[in-house]
Amino acid sequence: MAKRNKNTRKRIKEQQQYIAKLTFDDLLKKGDKHALDKKPRDAIKMYKLAIKNSKSEDQVQTVHRQLFLAYMQRADELTGKNMPVEAASLRKQAMNYMPPADVMDQRSIACVIELCDLGKAFNYCEQYIARTGADPLVGVLLADRLVTRGGWAFLDKQDAPCFISRDAPVVKAALPLMDNGQWQQASDEMKALPRSSAFAHIRMFCRAMTLFGQGDDKNMYKAISLIPDASVFAEIAAVLGTTVQSVNENTRIKEDKALAACLWEGPLDAWETAEKIIEKEEKKQFDKTMRQLIMTFSKQILPDDPEYARQYIVEILWHREITNEKTFMAFEKALLPQRAALVQTKRKILSMDNPLDHAAQYLDLLEKTVSDPQTLAMVESALFLYVCRTAVSESNQDELRTFSHKTAARFGLSHGKGIDILWMQCAARGIQCDAGNKELYELVIQRDVSGREPKKIKEDLLVSMCEAFPDDPYPCIELASLYHGKNAFRKAENILKKAMELAPYDSRVQDMHIISLVISADKSINRGNFERARQDLAKAQDLDTGTNALLLREKELFYQICEKPRLSEKTIGSNLDQLSLCQRLKLVCMLRMDVEDKPKNDHSKVFNKIGALFKTELIQVSRLTSEELLTLLTPFPRDWQHIFTSLKVHQMLLETSAGVLNYLNSDDLIGFMDRVLSSENWKYFQTELQRRIGSVKEDPNYYLLVFYILVMEGIWDNEWDVDELIDLVEDADPELKKKFKAAGERLSRHTHGPYRHALQNIEFELLDELFSNPFDSFDPFDPFDDDDDYDDDDGEFNPFNFLPEGVMDIEDIKDPILKNIFSAEAKRLKREDPEMYRDMFEQLKAAIEDIIDDEGLRGAPKPVLNKFKKKMIKENEEINGFILLLNLIFGDEGKRKLSREAKTVFLQ
Fold it and tell me: Source organism's superkingdom (predicted)?
């Protein structure tokens, strides 16, 4: 075996030596042959070697075009292997080799139109056409991109190619008609288009659709034949032809049956039915008429499987506000008698209402209709994918913690071990069910976890991902990063070798290899081994293509200072003077962050040296533009997490330079704040906002800044100026309200309950009600109780104190928004302060049981209890609201702990 391996290594070495001696032309030919043989990885290797051996700029440009196409070919190959992330990364790399338009061919220009922004695509196409002459295919591709992805505004503002801009207004006017299925009118609208127009094939498509509806097959085929194969409209036009052919020959339609069925039934009739459904939904009329409309509509759009269409429509209605849950469930059951229970359980999972228990229930129900174990496993994996993806926000993570012991045993989950372990166990269960669930693997990669057990689960999952996707270097990179965090450098080195074999020219692999070498060098510095550190750094510099240049430069200077803490200012200056001011300050900040835990020897001397340099250089921060300062404040990349103790360079700058935010313009300040705002730095932003709104009222973002400071004071100081927020929103124009809405969405993640809802919807009237005239007593039955011992600023949640006067009417409490708020707050209280939750229930229980005793109802039969309940509600309508709220907040406790009599009267 050893001899065979030795011979293999010898052959590889000889082959490498042979390739190294090849000329530019030979390497280019080899690359072209590999590309022709559909071996893009080998082609890329040859082309890159050809660039190294090139002797002129013309040769480089020639190779660039071939390299561009090879990267695109490799990206297509990865897409076929279900590796979309990696394919997108390669397409991005391909853009670095995009050749000038004067050496482009037709295939290359098609890639440019697909990938570039519209302006750049137009520019390339103009240059290409100037060289090659008119190219109908280019016009077709540009026209398709405009119609399918928009960009009309560009035509209005910029100088676009004449062959596009000349006819664009005609097509733009016809688009709404196409969207509504008015094909004849759309075709008539485009009658003025000449046959040479880049948009002519779109008119032919509309004509084909019209003729299909009229049953004129002969002329329809003629119109289809005039649509170029490269157009996106060719595929659907082909469906028209194959549908007609299948019907004429009495054979099964092989194309998309849903699309074909929709074409036969006719879009206009279906649209009229849809409008009636929408009208009924807006009035919340889930009655027999709406049920019949949905039955009709489902047959119109999907005659082969109308039940599936009905389920799809019902699921769309979930996302609308459902005011009466029981009515909707009855409506759901009437539409889907066999699947209602399954669909309702699915809804609870998607709403993250106790998702794990409901996932178990969903699978139990599904087993009754699906017997294939592989299908059931795929469904279970998809469920865990959804749960893991959704359980990112704090509120949804809280829901994830709630599940029964039976569910825990079924899925192999642990109670009470922390959200990281639970999340990883859910991911592991999903991958166990479907080892090819790549989306779930990618979520695992993105999840940052702490603690030995969750890291061990993540490591095992990454190892299994390497096995499941042996051609993908990405899990190897992440696994190497994990090993770095565990100081398992030998394992990291081995897995990186595998990644290098898989993708030697992938920039991510090269970057991780560089990071690995830097980590090794840092370890050597801490051990005082400067020679070894320099060797590792030199290897990293040889590998770098420029993306890590500043990091490697900082390390070089840092190691010099560590070795000689008395390094002269002149020597240090020589390392900095060649850099731009922004790069210079960035490097100095990196030095300041680097010295936190390194080196072990002479730490105080090195720290003082770098600290003095940092203080001196930071004086120049005022010379930076706002954009440059934002670059300086941006946290370090996640890949550097094992190089620096912290990636939060902004936190260090905020703590050491109080006025650094002064130099950001308001747009950059808001964007930066949205990205890094947290409890540890909000004071710095609050100070800056107060300074700005006190002195720069002419700032176009003035009112947005006011909004930010009002919300921040509410969240962190618990001082909600609700009147000011309401006035601010009411006075805003539509554009400003959009900005408030977007800002509210971003800020809402820092709070919970009614505050989160108010921010997400910019509806502060609810907070106004919650803060005004609260019921001060816990006892809702005593209208004369004026005990004023509740302080609405104490931060404690008392659901009855949140109720303003008059709001205890049952119709108000049925509002789904209020129901969700009270339910979420009750769950939070029960989780965070179970003792207070228990005390509140015990007080309520005592009051309720006293009423039962005072009324002499103990031991009374159920009819007597029901009669008393009706009488009580009739005499005091607010009791309705109280009963609903009691069930919403303390329903589970009440079922377990209230007496039979109290349950009958006060539980629903």
Answer: Bacteria
